[in-house]
Specification:
The complex is a heterodimer of chains A (about 220) and B (about 120).
Chain A (H helix, E strand, L loop, with lengths): L3 H9 L6 H24 L4 H10 L4 H6 L7 H24 L1 H30 L15 E3 L4 E4 L3 H10 L9 E9 L2 E8 L1 H7 L9 H6 L1
Antiparallel strand pairs in A: 1-2, 3-4
Chain B lengths: L3 E2 L7 H15 L5 E2 H11 L4 E2 L2 H13 L3 E6 L7 E6 L1 H25 L5
Helix pairs in contact in B: 1-4
The chains are: A mainly alpha (about 220), B alpha+beta (about 120).
């Protein structure tokens, strides 16, 4: 009688079963194979042929023994969630064991997030968000060339601006701002500006006090 | 697949998988049996049409045992070496009852559709 236990053990080795469990399976399967072998021999098969036929039955036995019952849809879900939970727990344990590393990681993350937020805020305000005017694409800054005075890009005077405004047939509405200044008013430092009558309409700027210089001139 | 059909066209794999459990549970209904005996009975009662090999039968028995539908126990009888006998548990009896009813309904439905009649 061939010893089938060796063959069975070899096939079950990769399953890493407990010694007791493996011994039970080996004993049970070898008994079955021995009876199959005896039956084949008594049916007229040679010993070698009977042995081969019996051993053929062991094909993929290790795969089938390790096979778990299949529940449709449940297996994959359980594994995915199980792996995720395991990963999170492992990460928390590692962080708790290394507080210095955790603090450095948190600070690095905070700085990274803060820097990204700041850059995005600037990009949003300067490049992405449209200016709060009706036709921001038509807004231009007009400069006066006063190179002979040492100012190649000079803010035009109110009188020059009014002359340009009269002569212009391209610009639909123009306005002028003569720059903002800090002035002392009744003992208080106040930010003031000079602008033409159209300036406020163009830019929708709310005037706190005073009047447009074009009106003063007209008056 | 767990079964080898020696004659006639091979039925659907899922059908065979479901029926294999039912066959084993049904054979253990009357009394406890060992694995070789279960395999022999299936082959005998199916007139050789259905045959289990070792790699099919025992993994299935272990799965049924894991589900607590059957329970295996080593028994040593006088003059014989010890063998592992499987018997049906209470849970297994319930499953067998349900599977039987389900299978009967399924076969009747198939008969109605295909027009197959008993001889």
């Amino acid at each position: 009688m061939p010893d089938f236990k060796v063959e069975i053990r070899a096939r079950l080795a990769e399953l890493q079963l407990s010694p007791v469990r493996e011994a039970e399976i080996v004993e049970e399967l070898s008994q079955h194979l021995e009876q199959e072998y005896e039956r084949a021999v008594s049916s007229g098969a040679s010993e070698e042929l009977a042995r081969q036929q019996v051993l053929e039955q062991l094909n993929h036995v290790e795969r089938r023994v390790s096979q778990k019952p299949v529940v449709a849809g449940a297996q994959l879900k359980t594994n995915l969630l199980g792996d995720l939970t395991q990963d999170i727990r492992y990460a928390l344990r590692v962080l708790a064991k290394n507080p210095a590393f955790t603090i450095i990681a948190v600070i690095a993350l905070a700085l990274g997030i803060g820097a990204n937020s700041a850059i995005f805020s600037v990009v949003d305000a300067v490049l992405l968000r449209p200016l709060p005017f009706k036709h921001p694409e038509q807004l231009v800054m007009v400069w006066e060339n006063a190179a002979h005075l040492g100012f190649p890009r000079n803010t035009p005077s109110p009188a020059n601006f009014l002359d340009w405004q009269k002569a212009s047939s391209i610009v639909h509405r123009n306005g002028s701002n003569d720059g903002a200044k800090l002035q002392s008013h009744r003992g208080r430092r106040t930010r003031t500006a000079r602008w033409s009558s159209c300036f406020r309409k163009s830019l929708r700027v709310v005037r706190y006090t005073g009047s447009a210089w074009a009106h003063i001139r007209a008056g | 697949m767990a079964l080898q059909y020696m004659a006639s066209p091979v039925p659907d794999r899922e059908l065979k998988k479901g029926s294999a459990e039912l066959m084993i549970l049904a054979l253990l209904e009357d009394r406890a049996r060992h694995g070789y005996e279960i395999g022999q009975l299936i082959e005998l009662r199916s007139r050789g049409a259905i045959r289990f090999n070792v790699a099919s039968l025992y993994p299935l028995l272990y799965r049924l045992e894991k589900r607590n539908w059957i329970r295996g126990r080593w028994i040593e009888k006088p003059g014989q070496r010890r063998r592992r006998y499987y018997r049906l548990t209470a849970s297994g009896k319930n499953v067998l009852s349900k599977q039987r009813a389900g299978w009967r309904e399924f076969v009747e439905a198939i008969n109605l559709i295909t027009g197959i009649q008993h001889a």
